[in-house]
Design a protein that fits this description.
Bound molecules: zinc ion
CATH topology of the largest domain: Phosphorylase Kinase, domain 1
Structural class: alpha+beta
Number of strands: 25
Distance between the termini: 34 Å
Radius of gyration: 30 Å
Oligomer: single chain
CATH class of the largest domain: Alpha Beta
């Protein structure tokens, strides 16, 4: 019977592939838009550059192949070339307008004579002036400047100690007027054209010039364009590596910008409406909690069950001791320590800003709902990856009539330990973020491209809090919900690691490929993006043969069973202890088989001392779902402590309901 239920579940999974397919399709349209690249090489073509130009000639194919491979599905690249020499040369510039035909690029390079130059300095500014005249169109634009000598003028080289004749030998035009206004102008134009800049120099004589260029690009503040100066060691291979490094760095910057023309992030709001309250912080100490002012509050726990996003919000009147001063301050909120009647440590979180929309019922409701949803995903993630279970701490809506002037705030269990932020909702990833990133990717996959839990932060690597959920077209999940924009942004910066692979997650077309350059200097790449046609054929072959669906389901079922406990690999990040779900404040070290056993036996994760009470207070009732003969098990002890209502459906039915809930985001459901 339980097998039937699993099959039912998997049927939904296959059904939802159609939804995932359409999510992948629409993402690939957005990817095509974002992944068009114009790459212009502006290079010194005088005698001293002979070996480097040779390298470029040989490697231009590899470079194009790499850019396409690293962008992945749906990308396109055009190349433009500007070869520059010096004032005294017969042919000072040779220009190839943007083209996507690499043969043209090769032909141009073959015809290009490496010659002339006269004095060491060259007309670099002139080369840039030609480049800004090209027909820049793509959404991502990169200008590579390759040179081994600075441009003319004292502004660009260290000539202070030199006597006049030595200086003249190095630079025939030390007072070249081009070093001033024209140089400023061409850099302003480059920024205006939104060109990323990758400087590659083969000589230390260019250091000052690149410093000046960097400063010129910084004028006018943060434009979000990358400026990179690299020093290849002169070998062809290193040259290609530098081009690739510059490309990757520019693209991850520019793709992010393209996808978000008017970025306003919940965690980056600098001047929200409503003035910021300033409260002093006080060190955290629980000893005198009985002296903290008592507050009569209404605590509402949300339970996400059934297709309705929240069913039976469970209200209880409680008495809390809340300290006058907060102990922590985030970007957005203050955290106050509080202790309830039973002595459980809790945290009250309020927004720092005055004004109705900040600490409104809707805003707090959205935060609590977001965390409730995140926990559904975390539970499923932990079931599939029990070697690294994750847990979102429980939180509640708190309504107080006389606490400061905050009527609504969020209340949650206190997590002891060192607080860490792994990812933001804008695509940022800190160090040690592979588990957090894999979890975000997993939530997207599980919800068939509908939702993504981001902004992963918490204590240790397992107990998390304050997530955000991206869900296109939904008004739930509050101000941090950036919809597709947020999900795209995550994928543009995410490359799948071992955990994603172990979970078999579908890749998004917005991810960049994992191309690598091999010893021989050729590009090897493996595009694992799921193309919609692949999904199509696998689905249609399933649908066409009679009985095939059942066979597929049985097969997936057995693979699911055998994958239930993936062998832990030493290199995988292991998660830390979880919080006892009875809210005693205790930590539980449970992972792998132990975690799954624990879950089966007690329906939750409890510490040693709570386990006994959970066991003693276990209740059994028939599942109230139609056609279900299973029983509901719950602990009265836990219900009392968490202030939640007894579940009405069994574990399997609840899992199914949660799945349906995640799969269907139905805006017609009302918040209450
Ligand atoms: Zn020269
Ligand atoms: Zn991934
Ligand atoms: Zn406990
Ligand atoms: Zn049931």
């Amino acid at each position: 019977e339980s097998k039937c239920r699993e099959i039912e579940r998997l049927k939904q999974l296959v059904g939802s592939n159609a939804k995932l397919k359409s999510a992948v399709e629409s993402a690939s349209l957005r990817a095509r838009e974002a992944k068009s690249v114009d790459a212009c090489f502006v290079f010194d073509c005088t005698s001293s550059m002979r070996t480097n130009v040779e390298a470029a000639k040989q490697k231009i194919n590899a470079i194009q192949e790499y850019i396409l491979a690293s962008l992945g599905h749906g990308s396109s690249v055009r190349f433009g070339l500007v070869a520059f020499r010096d004032y005294t040369d017969e042919q000072q510039f040779e220009i190839l307008p943007f083209t996507n035909n690499v043969q043209e690029v090769r032909g141009f390079l073959a015809r290009c004579q490496v010659q002339g130059g006269g004095d060491p300095c060259e007309d670099v500014i002139g080369g840039l002036e030609q480049a800004v005249l090209l027909d820049w169109q793509a959404s991502s634009r990169i200008l590579y400047l390759l040179c081994d000598s600075p441009s003319h003028g004292r502004r660009f080289h260290d000539s202070d100690g030199l006597d006049d004749s030595t200086l003249k030998e190095f630079d025939n035009y030390p007072n070249d007027p081009k070093q001033w206004a024209p140089a400023d102008l061409v850099h302003a134009q480059m920024v205006q054209l939104r060109l990323h800049f990758v400087g590659m120099t083969f000589s230390r004589h260019c250091e000052k010039m690149f410093r000046v260029f960097s400063n010129l690009r910084d004028i006018g503040g943060d434009h979000g364009l990358s400026t990179l100066v690299l020093k290849p060691d002169g070998s062809a291979k290193d040259f290609v590596q530098c081009v690739l490094e510059g490309t990757r760095s520019s693209l991850s910057n520019s793709l992010t910008l393209v996808s978000s023309p008017q970025w306003s992030l919940a965690d980056q709001v600098s001047e929200p409406h409503g003035a910021r309250r300033v409260l002093g912080l006080q060190e955290l100490c629980w000893e005198d909690w009985e002296c903290w002012p008592q507050q009569q509050v209404l605590v509402t726990a949300l339970t996400a069950v059934g297709r309705r996003r929240t069913a039976q919000p469970n209200c209880t009147a409680r008495v809390l001791h809340i300290r006058e001063l907060p102990f922590a301050k985030g970007n957005m909120r203050y955290a106050f320590p509080a202790v309830d009647e039973r002595g459980s440590k809790m945290v009250v979180k309020v927004y720092q800003f005055e004004g109705n929309r900040w600490n409104s019922r809707e805003a707090v409701w959205a935060d609590v709902l977001t965390q409730t949803y995140a926990q559904i995903f975390a539970a499923e993630f932990s079931r599939r990856m029990p070697t690294m279970p994750l847990q979102f701490v429980r939180n509640y809506i708190m309504e107080a009539s006389h606490w400061k002037d905050y009527r609504f705030s969020a209340l949650e269990d206190f997590i002891p330990g060192l607080y860490q932020k792994y990812t933001s909702n804008s695509g940022f990833s800190g160090s040690n973020s592979s588990l957090a990133e894999a979890f975000s990717h997993f939530t997207w996959h599980l919800s068939s491209g509908d939702m993504m839990v981001t902004d992963i932060q918490g204590v240790g690597s397992a107990v998390l809090t304050d997530p955000q959920i991206h869900c296109e077209g939904s008004t739930y999940f509050g101000k941090g919900n950036l919809g597709n924009r947020g999900m795209d942004n995550f994928f543009m910066r995410h490359s799948c690691g071992e955990i994603c692979t172990a979970l078999g997650l579908t890749r998004s077309p917005l991810q960049m490929g994992d191309a690598d350059i091999t010893e021989a200097g050729t590009v090897s790449h493996e595009l694992r993006t799921v193309h919609s046609s692949d999904l199509d054929s696998s689905l249609s072959s399933v649908m066409s043969a009679p009985g095939a669906l059942d066979r597929l389901l049985t097969r997936s079922l057995s693979s699911l069973r055998s994958d239930a406990t993936p062998r832990s690999s030493g290199s995988l990040l292991c998660s830390g202890p979880l919080l006892c779900e009875a809210r005693c404040g205790g930590a539980v070290e449970a992972s792998g088989d132990k975690y799954l056993k624990h879950l089966r036996k007690y329906g939750g994760i409890y510490c040693e001392s709570c386990k006994l009470q959970v066991k003693d207070s276990m209740c059994r009732a028939p599942c109230q779902r139609a056609d279900c003969k299973e029983h509901v098990f719950y602990s009265v002890f836990v219900l009392g402590i968490t202030g939640t209502a007894a579940p009405t459906s069994c574990r399997h039915c609840r899992a199914l309901e949660c799945w349906t809930l995640i799969e269907r985001v139905d805006e017609t459901d009302s918040v209450e």
